[in-house]
Amino acid sequence: MLLFISSSKGWCQLFQNRNLYDIWITAEQYADAGKFNEAIKLYEAAPQVPEFARQLKITRQLQTVFQTGERLYRAKKYAEALEAYSKYREIAPNLHTAILDARIQTCLQQLDKVLVKKIAESTRVVAGFEYAYKGDTKLLELDTLAALGYYNKARQLGGNLNQTLREQYLAGLQSVKALRKWGEDYRRIAVTEDKALTLDILRKYRSASKYIISTLEYEIKSAEEGQRAILGSRSQGNPTERMNQYAQDCRIEDLAYFVKNNSSFIPQAVSTSRLVDEYRAIEGDIARLLKDPGNGPFLESAYRNLIEKAGQIPSVGGTIQLCAKKLYFEYLYGQAVWSEKEGLENGDKTRYQEALRYSMEAYQLGLSELNTDLEVLQRRIAAQLDCEDRRQDFENLLVGIRLDLSQCQVKSAKTRWDTAAARLSGCGLNNSQFSAQYIALRDSVYQFYIADSSLVSLTARGNQALDTRKCEEARGIIEQIQNLWMCDPGNRDSLLLQYRDRISQCEQLTCYITNRNKAIQSAENREWKKSYDYYQQAYTCASETQKLRIKEIMEDMECDAYPDRCQKSNVSVSLEPSVRIGINKPKYTEEGKAWETTYGYLTSAGLQVSFLSYLNPLDVVLGLDYFQTEYQSVDKGDPKGDFKISGADAYVAFKLHPTGTDPNRLRPYLKGGFEVLLPMSYSLQNHYKNESTRDRSLLKKQSLGTLAALGIELQKKKFGFFIEIVGGYNFSGIYNANAVSSSGAKGKTEAQFRTAGIRVGARLW
User: Fold this and answer.
1) Residue 714 — φ and ψ, nearest 5°?
2) How do residues 374-432 score in pLDDT, each as one tens digit?
């Protein structure tokens, strides 16, 4: 096959390392895309293969149809273009070409914009057939609503213009009606959960539908299996077990529908479904190609593609690959037997050589349980060949074997050796004198082949171990790879280098994920120190992006995990908004006589600056508030005067608290200091004289007092708050020497504030 491909001209040279099936698939893709010239060049690469010759003829016909339709399509003559494109349906049964289907759909959409009466009868018939075809397609998908619409469209366009079309859409409408009636019965029975009756209704769809619908056939099989499981007291198992059972039984169609119907319970369901469908498509191609014996080389490449595709299917790939190999084995064994029979009947030695090639290809599949019959066949074939010719063939093949080994093409060398050995069977290979000269070559072939096979197996195991983050297992595997005696050690060393990098990444990722998960768990248990330490270990294994996130988490957690780190010996400055709410009952005198006062309110709001030190017992607080207070003086219970004063309140205080406390816990403190009132506004309403004054000059510019408080606070790294009970006494009074009493006397009026209340504050940075 390689010799054939390498001798081809033109576009085929692009596929020197591809098999015929790949070329065929690529050509089909070109045709679907409307690149008919490229597809034709690829089919011309193997005109002696019947399937290629058939597709070459079809593609040329498709190109003619497309070119004719395209000229009309570009001229926007959609009715004529539809008739031209639709002729491709006549070329071959079950033929689907994407570009032509798309053009037909566009033409139909354009015709929908035209009144039916204005469309030529011939075009209406063609369009009717296309809509009926679409209806049939939707019926196969069990989409009766869409199918009904398409059949009605076919009836609207075609009417009685064509008897075949009329029969097709009427049969379709009847099938839609029957399927809908069946669907109603099925839904009514399904809710009863009567499995036997449900199965009976399922089977009845066959009489309602004009087609066998694969999805329903799978439902029937599943229901039948369920009944057998119940009768046999067996469980149907979980989805994985069901998939494995289907794969072991080589029931690929059932596997495909099972995956689609249970996708939510199956890992990698989307890729599994896609790959199984691709596997089934290749199976279908093989079944069609088997009908013509001339497709031999093409079939062999298709079988190899089938085996390769099976191995790609997640979870059950290895099992399905065994199914594919058995199919290929049956084909090769059958071809070998047929060639042997032809050799016997015609006395043609080339048929025996051909049979031997088929048998050796089957042997290479490694199905040891089937090799007994194969070995009998090989001995029977070898007996039909003359020993001299066979020895000559053997020695000729040795030249290729040595050439393969010199180029480290070990698999090819092994295949050649097995072929040579099979051809020499019974003609002296087991003779020690004859075989002694070939022992070294044989041992080299087998040693290198075993090493190559081991490399493939170990590589697969290593990839699986790395994919599941079993880093230690992967490291053990590369040690085994390192000890392999390879024909091409450079390839092995390059692979080892890649594996070491991947193992390093695996260990790094495992380290990160393990420690991060432990950190999260510890944090959920409020074990802050353990969580912080695990994050610290995860940080050493993290990527740069991950490190940024972990660093933020550790900064937030540090004070919880290690409080002493947040207890700084130096002084830190904290700016805290605060609010005070309290009462004020001044000590008030006029002309040396004390007057009773009521309890008035006192409010203030402002900022305070705290100089904090966790290790020292004393903090300093500076503050500035805006205050406002109101109170009354009374005489024998009757109001005498209403006072309202506001202004600024500056204070300095010292807080005494325990040392070395946890900043994440509440801390008690005592506070004492001095404050200065700076009155800014004054209001007096004299009820005796029915007079009022707002003369600010009656008050001192500043008034001294003391304050004391008992409180608790929390001073975390990025958040703090305090609440305290605070009292104050203004010992200097608020009136100046020019104060005028309510009686008109000077210098004998005074008020000294006596306050009590609650002050709260917070810090958000």
Assistant:
1) -130, 125
2) 778 877 776 776 666 667 777 777 788 888 888 888 888 887 777 777 666 656 555 55
Separation between Cα atoms, residue 169 and residue 159, nearest integer Å: 10
Rounded Cα distance, 296 and 49, in Å: 8
Rg (CA), the chain: 48
Start-end of H helices in 562-605:
563-566
Beta bridge partners of 192: none
Q: Computed from CA positions of residues 343, 347, 350, 353, in that sequence, does the dihedral angle turn out positive or negative?
A: positive
Residue type, 648: A
Mean pLDDT value across residues 656-666: 76
Alpha carbons 4 and 216: distance in angstroms, whole number = 45
Burial class of residue 64 (count of CB atoms within 10 Å of its CB; 0-12, 13-18, 19+): middle
659 within 8 A of 615, measured Cβ to Cβ: yes
Q: Which amino acid is at 543?
A: S
Distances (CA, A) of 404 to 40, 161, 417, 488: 35, 69, 11, 12
Q: Helical H runs in 562-654?
A: 563-566
First to last CA, the chain: 76
User: How many alpha carbons fall within 13 Å on the CB side of residue 576?
Assistant: 28
The amino acid at 625? D
Cβ contact 401:444 at 8 Å:
no
Query: Three-class SS string for 671-703?
Result: EEEEEEEEEEEEEEEECCCCEEECCHHHECCCE
| Cβ count near 449 (within 10 Å) | 18
CA-to-CA distance for 302 and 459, rounded, in angstroms? 26
For residue 158, CA distances in Å to 82, 133, 134, 468, 686 come to 15, 13, 14, 61, 107
Cα gap 560→567, rounded to integer Å = 12
- Mean per-residue pLDDT for 695-717? 90
3-state secondary structure 183-250: HHHHHHHHCCCCHHHHHHHHHCHHHHCCCCCHHHHHHHHHHHHHHHHHHCCCCCCCHHHHHHHHHHCC
Phi, psi of 556, rounded to the nearest 5 degrees:
-70, -30
The 10 Å Cβ neighbour count of residue 466 is 19
Residue 67: how many other CB atoms lie within 10 Å: 11
Contact between 403 and 356 under an 8 Å Cβ cutoff? The reply is no
In contact, 749 and 735? CB cutoff 8 Å: yes
Residue 558 token pair: 């540090």
- d(CA 129, CA 168) in angstroms, rounded, equals 8
Contact predicate 278/320, CB 8 Å: no
SS3 273: helix
Beta carbons of 642 and 617 less than 8 angstroms apart = no
Look at the alpha carbons of 119, 122, 127, 131 in this order and tell me if their dihedral is positive or negative: positive
Q: Distance between CA atoms of 557 and 648, rounded to whole angstroms?
A: 40
Cα 297 to its chain centre, rounded Å, is: 40
Q: Could you report the per-residue pLDDT of 66-102, keeping only the tens digit for each?
A: 999 999 999 989 899 999 999 998 888 778 899 999 9
* Beta carbons of 416 and 397 less than 8 angstroms apart: yes
Collapse the DSSP code of 350 into the 3-class scheme (helix H, G, I; strand E, B; otherwise coil) and give the result. helix
CA gap 221, 64 in Å, rounded: 45
Return d(Cα 216, Cα 391) in angstroms, integer: 60
CA distance 325 to 303: 8
- Can you spell out the DSSP letters for 545-556? HHHHHHHHHHHH
| Banded pLDDT at 144 (limits 50, 70, 90) | confident
Averaged over 543-558, what is the pLDDT? 85
84, 72 Cβ separation under 8 angstroms: yes
| Lookup result for tokens 């959960």 | 193
Tokens for 626, please give them: 């805006």
Q: Can you read off the two tokens belonging to residue 154?
A: 């076919």
Residue found under tokens 């096959």: 1
Q: How far is CA 656 from CA 668, 673, 711, 721, 728, in A?
A: 9, 11, 10, 16, 18
Local structure of residue 347 (DSSP, 8 states): -
